[in-house]
Give the backbone structure.
Amino acid sequence: MKDTVKNEKLNKWIREVADLCTPDDVYICNGSKDEYRLMIDKLIKSGIAIPLTKRPNSFLFRSDPSDVARVEDNTYISTSSREEAGPTNNWIAPGDLKKTMMDLYKGCMRGRTMYVIPFSMGPIGSPISKIGIEISDSPYVVVNMHIMTRVSSRVLELLGTDGDFIPCLHSVGAPLAPGQKDTKWPCAPIEKKYISHFPEENLIWSYGSGYGGNALLGKKCLALRIASAMARREGWMAEHMLILRLTNPEGKQYHIAAAFPSACGKTNLAMMQPSIAGWKCECIGDDIAWMKVGADGRLYAINPENGFFGVAPGTSYSTNPMAMDTLKENVIFTNCALTDDGDVWWEGKDGDEPAHAIDWKGKDWTPESPTDAAHANARFTAPASQCPVICKDWEKPEGVPIDIFIFGGRRTGVVPLVYEAFDWEHGVFLGATAASETTAANIGAVGNLRRDPFAMKPFCGYNMGDYFKHWFDMGDKLGSKAPRVFYVNWFRKSQDGKFLWPGFSDNSRVLKWMCERVDGRVGAHKTPIGLLPNEGDLDLSGLHLSADSMKELMSIDLTAWKAEIPDIEKHFSTFGKRMPERLKKQFQRFIDALGKHV
Ligand code: GTP
Ligand code: SPV
Ligand code: MN
């Protein structure tokens, strides 16, 4: 170990964790293809990874039925005072939380190997990148981290003897007694799961879950919760946003960053292929954006990730063909169904349902079965470089200049297809009041409306009131160079429960309007909620959409909007003194504007 790890802090930490968790052995990862193959071979041998005959170097995993999504109720922002974590986060005092977790960590890796995973969020060596070291007892985590982040021995070289890193400790929380047979997906019961963040010391401790954001600690834990707290201290932004490049028929480029809550369309929009002639879309990132003000005063974004951890159900050649082409090889699938010919399947995939499959729980499944074949939060882990429309500049260390911000969510009613904020201040109000129906990306009820400000409710590593203020501060810094702000809702439904808007590639029509707004080519009309497209300005050519549907999609029911006021009031009141005056002013403006339209 001494030979590979020369960093003092890291050596000390590895020793401490090994002493505490008592693994059978310690393995330092180097990120090589051989290492990946070695891990996978072991996982195949123990029946945990299922090779897919239809997709080279691709494997299916099935999680424990209790461990299928992020666990927001067990996720903590542990700051020295509750006030610093704010009303949107769970909080336990650092001393208490560490004591509880130290007890859980004691001997928790018995019978297992402890993997030390050096990774970089952002290109290795770039000034915007951050180095993390994840210690985990899960080989599934190792192979997923290989795809989702840049795992490499070069990271250790870069650290040198005294470089700094973000320690990310993870255990599935299932020690093995001597001779005890392991389960295929070891994890701890829900009451022993803890996803803990200590933003004041840039530290992550996760225990008890092996799934997604609970376990792949570079993603939500580091790149959003810890990074958002760092970003506020250092004057930049870490957001739950996709990044894309749109090019118009004249060759002009626009860069768009969009924040939608989990399972609300980021991956799909990031890889969208426009249905309108002459427009081109390229993907830069599908989940997280780190943004800094550049020398020219504009806001530049990078994608800190290296892969996609995307929702499988609903992904098909008709909805997201570029994702489908990304998934041809070198992919890890989790909780998808297995077909008899050795491929994966999920609800909404192209073609007919298989006559028989093995469902995500490992049981026989036929179309007559009462349950879904794939879990609603079944996911694929795929290298970003495999996406046919990955932008050639996606790893550019300086990032791309953002022209447009989009907020949105899943709203069956009330919210129109698209509208624009009057200005940055109003844009912050739109972000701060964003609401969406809950999805399977978190353990809990699905379909409940909740406020999810900036799609960051589960991911903001400090008091959300201060986060709102940070957005105003960034606006002040950017001035006239700030991106324009829009709000969208792809999910409005008709009375008979059908989506009114075709979505997917047709979302390009909405993006086109935004670009034309930026260029001052089209006007918009003022309503109490914001600026709406003028009749005829949304390009609907070649789209079979009835005039009635379009009317319903764009309609603003003032009574329904007024009914939002008490809920926004309740939401805002939770921030107390941390609520920026500028946001209160925006709320008052909104109330006044609605009042004038009785
Ligand atoms: P996370 O990875 O959890 O952050 O999710 P995400 O925001 O990337 O969502 P994703 O793009 O994976 O979409 C989630 C689900 O929404 C999928 O089942 C999609 O098929 C569906 N979806 C995405 N875009 C649209 C759209 O424009 N219209 C409709 N009706 N559904 C969509
Ligand atoms: C999300 O839930 O927003 C995801 C999946 O992107 S996870 O990595 O589990 O957070
Ligand atoms: Mn996400």
Observations:
- The radius of gyration is 24 Å.
- The CA atoms of residues 78 and 198 lie 5 Å apart.
